[in-house]
Write a structure and sequence with these properties.
alpha+beta, single chain
Length: 61
């Protein structure tokens, strides 16, 4: 799942749907996503909510 922070709500999308949203330009490099690859508390505090361009999602936007 790729959780997306869409302002006042969070949208959870399977990767295939995230790819479709990116292709349709419904999400962009500036869309806030949750980086589920964080491995430490420090990474969580600094890199949990990031723009898609700064996460593994960047390959799709």
């Amino acid at each position: 799942m790729s959780p997306l922070n869409k302002g006042e709500f969070i949208a959870y999308k399977p990767l295939k749907d995230f790819k479709k949203l990116a292709k349709a330009r419904s999400v962009s490099a500036n869309t806030i996503v949750f980086n589920n690859l964080v491995a430490t508390k420090q990474e969580y505090l600094e890199n949990w909510e990031v723009p898609a361009s700064e996460s593994w999602h960047s390959r799709f936007v």
